[in-house]
Design a protein that fits this description.
The chain is an alpha/beta fold. It has seven helices and 13 strands. It has a single domain, classed as Metallo-dependent phosphatases (Purple Acid Phosphatase, chain A, domain 2), CATH 3.60.21.10. 31% of the residues lie in helices and 18% in strands. The strands form two sheets. Strands 1, 5, 6, 7, 8, 9, 10 and 11 form an eight-stranded mixed sheet that branches. Strands 4-3-2-12-13 form a five-stranded mixed sheet, with no helix packed on it.
Length: 353
């Protein structure tokens, strides 16, 4: 589909108008929301992110939308990255408006988290042509995303979920309950969670800018960890059987990507420790869903203080980049594991021999 500026304006105006028509008041504290269809003891959701990347991803993404819609999932969660790093600048016409149009094509609710290619890398990490003077400030781009994608306490998609948001600033962090599970989204990013070092991962900005971005990361991480703790407290309060956390970053639980320079991932141990502590203190099942590394993965990456596996914690990494597919999560209260994850390969997006 080809877009022009008039079409983009219409898309965003329609999206914001629809959101406003749903609710004419944004609860400044985000309270008394996030309860959805409590009677559902078995249902399936769709998990995906890091797409559409490049021209092939843009051509394939409508197939994924159709496949998810045909599966009649309860809702979808997009775990970040609206474009590949080299797919041009972070402008409305190039990134944000096409994403809003795509998300509006999902019949069931869709909740998203931001990705590093959406904002932290918009300064030009991936070279000439990936930034403009108007889009080069990552913190400004994040605020712009907040205004476009999180203007109310409701999800995206044609049908809506009611969400509890981390007002007033970190509105991209959401929480909701559906059946026996509490869901928590966190703005935890690739690119070392926006904590840069000069000369690492293509970092070439002045030190003053590096320090400004580090200050953003420190404040956001503090808010994220508080939000995670609040979410688990809420789950215990409502006697949830499980908690699912969704973020963009691969937190490198065991540095399985074999990164040589620890400065590429030293922002993540705080998150890993918090996830370990929360899971070990929670009586039910915990799932952590992320993207960023573009490789489907299902494992038990956490070890307890004595070296044994944290049995109630499961990590799921979704497809992405060249592989425009999704992961289904079936929540079944009668299953001891509660979460059952399945690869969902979109037939039209599989390379044929």
């Amino acid at each position: 589909m080809k877009f022009n500026n008039r079409h983009f304006s219409a898309v965003i105006a329609l999206a914001l108008a629809c959101a406003a028509s749903i609710s004419n008041a944004k609860d400044s504290q985000g309270q008394n929301h996030g309860e959805n269809d409590d009677g559902h003891s078995k249902y399936t959701i769709a998990l995906f992110g890091d797409m559409p990347y490049n021209q092939i991803g843009k051509a394939q993404f409508p197939n994924l939308i159709a496949d998810v819609n045909a599966a009649h999932v309860a809702f979808s969660v997009f775990d970040g990255d609206l474009k590949a790093g080299g797919d041009g600048p972070c402008t409305d016409s190039n990134v944000y408006f096409p994403a809003l149009a795509n998300f509006s094509a999902f019949v069931q609710p869709l909740v998203m988290v931001p990705g590093d290619n959406d904002w932290t890398d918009c300064w030009g990490r991936y070279g000439p042509g990936t930034s403009t003077p108007e889009t080069a400030d990552p913190i400004e781009r994040l605020q712009h995303e907040r205004e476009l994608f999180f203007p109310t306490r409701f999800s995206l998609g044609q049908h809506k979920l009611s969400l509890t948001r981390q007002y007033p600033q970190y509105v991209e962090n959401a929480r909701w309950k559906y059946g026996p599970v509490v869901y928590i989204t966190l703005n935890m990013q690739g690119s070392n969670d926006n904590y840069p070092y000069a000369g690492v991962d293509g970092e070439s900005r002045p030190q003053a800018e590096i320090e400004r971005e580090r200050a953003e990361e420190v404040a956001r991480k503090s808010a994220n960890l508080a939000w995670l703790g609040d979410g688990f407290a809420y789950a215990r309060q409502v006697h949830a059987k499980g908690v699912m956390i969704i973020a963009q970053a691969d937190p490198m639980f065991n540095n399985e990507n074999h990164l040589v320079d620890p400065r590429s991932w030293d922002a993540f141990p705080d998150y890993v420790n918090a996830l370990r502590d929360a899971a070990m203190a929670f009586p039910g099942q915990v799932a952590f869903v992320h993207g960023d590394s573009h490789y489907f993965k299902l494992d038990k990456p956490l070890s307890g203080p004595k070296g044994g596996v944290v049995a109630n914690f499961t990590r799921v990494e979704t497809f992405g980049a060249r592989n425009t597919h999704w992961v289904s999560a079936t929540i079944d209260i009668d299953n001891p594991d509660l979460f059952v994850f399945t690869q969902r390969l979109v037939p039209a997006n599989i390379d044929q021999p």
